[in-house]
Design a protein that fits this description.
mainly alpha, Arp2/3 complex 21 kDa subunit ARPC3, two-stranded antiparallel sheet, 2 strands
């Protein structure tokens, strides 16, 4: 049985004495939620990368589960896509055609973002374990840092396909307002969740 003297994340407070099976269920559940969030996709005519709710779900996964379980949930999600399940944006898998003819999603424009999800979930989870999810301004900072990691990997990979300036204009700038709204929602939800469990 896994016990913790000090709750590190909201999930640790809600489920304080979890067994390995509980952790496995959380990993699978959050990997499935990541897959569902990827299906809420809005294609944009000026970029090969759609707007999805996935980035919000990645950041919430890390903040709620912590670095270790959050990382494992994102890896499980990626494994589902590699196994051919249609869990990526637009109901695709790693082997589906990407927006570039003849190139699978695994090597397409979005793969950098998918890799960035792993590191972002681990980072924000690590910060949440240190109390960054308890007040609004540290929550916002943690989420901005996590989003920055996603952009670093996503735009970095996209720049190998499109060049740096096009990658920034197509792979980051169109999403900043949407990401700010998603971060604002999480900034309300996470400290609000802590306020509820403290009552």
């Amino acid at each position: 049985m896994q016990t913790q003297a000090v709750p590190l994340t909201l999930v640790d407070v809600v489920l304080p004495q979890r067994r390995t099976l509980h952790n496995v269920i959380l990993i699978v559940l959050f990997s499935l939620l990541l897959g569902v969030s990827a299906q809420i996709a809005i294609p944009l005519p000026f970029t090969p990368v759609p707007i999805t709710m996935q980035t919000l779900m990645v950041l919430l996964t890390g903040m709620l589960l912590g670095s270790r379980l959050g990382l494992m949930a994102v890896l499980a999600y990626l494994a589902e896509g590699l196994a051919g399940l249609p869990v990526f944006a637009g109901g695709t898998s790693a082997w589906s055609p990407s927006s570039i003819p003849g190139v699978p999603v695994l090597l397409g424009p979005s793969v950098g973002y998918l890799v960035g999800f792993v590191f972002a979930a681990a980072l924000v989870g690590w910060l949440a374990e240190r109390g960054w999810d308890r007040v609004w301004w540290t929550t916002a900072l943690a989420l901005v840092l996590g989003n920055g990691v996603i952009y670093a990997f996503g735009v970095g990979w996209l720049s190998t396909l499109l060049g740096v300036s096009t990658a920034i204009s197509a792979g980051m700038l169109p999403f900043l307002i949407g990401d700010a709204i998603k971060i604002a929602l999480a900034v309300i939800a996470l400290p609000g969740g802590w306020a509820l469990v403290r009552k």
